[in-house]
Design goal:
Elements: H1 3-16, H2 23-37, H3 41-56, H4 61-71, H5 78-92, H6 96-115, E1 121-123, E2 126-128, H7 130-145, H8 150-176, H9 188-199, H10 214-253, H11 257-278, H12 280-310, H13 318-335, H14 350-364, H15 369-381, H16 392-402, H17 413-434
Antiparallel strand pairs: 1-2
Helix pairs in contact: 2-3, 2-4, 3-5, 4-5, 4-6, 5-6, 5-7, 6-8, 7-8, 7-9, 8-10, 9-10, 11-14, 12-13, 15-17, 16-17
Amino acid sequence: MSEEEVAEALELEEELEEVPDNFVDQMASRIGIILQREMDPTVGATEVTKYIYETTFPSKVNYFLDAMEMLHESHTTDKYAALAWSGMVSAAAHNKDYDTYMHTMLDKMIQSYYGMEKPDVELKDRKFSAFTTIIAKTFIKMVELNPKLTDTAAELYSHVVRKEMELDAQAQKDEDEGGITLPNMAKLYDDVIDYLSTRSEFKAKSLGEENPYEHVAQLKERMSQSRRYVVQDVMNQRALEKKKQLELELENQLASAEELILAQEPYVEGLALFIHEKRYNYKFLAVEKIRMTLQLIGSILGAVYFLIGYMDIWGLDWIEGIFVCLAMIIFTRLAGGRSRFKSFYPIDVSKELEQFSTQFINVFRNMSMEQMEHFLVRQIKLDRNRNYLSMIPEYVKYLFAIMPDRKNMVITMDELSELVENAEIEIAKAVRGQV
């Protein structure tokens, strides 16, 4: 049966089962009678736990809280509330059913606290929740009955802290997903500390007068220590879980061995094309220099013939000089045109480079630092890359420069810089080995 079905069954049971009007009075009286009858408080507390469990679980847990509130109304019966709670904690440590009951009761108390189901209680001009008052008075009475029960109170308080932190985390998750948020209230465990602090306040009328609430102040310090310990423990557990989750996500995101093998061919081809493209401008300018030089020489020769004809030297008149000049200029333009030098120009491989680089970038983005280091070492030792060793770091920088969404890379900028430096060291070793 699912949790929702259990909840529905409990609601149906509550509707069908009638509860007497004096049910809380009967329960409080029964608890007092059991504890008065038993000479040993431990045995009495165990009997009370059994009675409460059989009477209120699972649909009447809230009536137990009402009974505890009633017992705290009198100084003659408040000790029964403390013994009932301490017996429940002790029994829960050895009985799974009682443990389930205790956690159900604490859940109900926290739920009722945030639901503000009871009116507030005043203490020294301050208002506290009725549920804060119930549990705080219980802790105080436990310590007054037996200082050794401080550990029991701290254990019960620790459960409250953990439960509220879990509830707060779930509420934060629901809020992020557009769900219902918790009321903007102080946490129950913080309210308990404030109640104990207010209760322990004492203004001495004389210099030597002792604080009759010193045990409450000591209890508050113990609860504060428990709160700090539990909060830190929960935060550490969440950090550890988050770390494991990130490691799992990173492991799923990292490139697989098959992807690394398949990425080698695009990398090698891309490296060769990158070098070819890097030399493209130099080769293009060299061809352009030769072409422009030939055009310039033809134009200069044409101008010389024009001057010779103009000055009537070598039997050449100015009309013939103009004709020869124009003929040389037209000839050099035709013979030195780019179409004539097409076979001498370097081939533009930018499209092929982009294609192979994109194939490798898809794997490069998901490589870890260790994977990338091993991959580059293999490329440095590869025979096909022997002539391109000095360009490997440059190619890595080029890949990073053209990579879209660089923020999604597994490695960081600092790791990439370290990677390039290590590659340069490995290249230097390889070059010395070749020599």
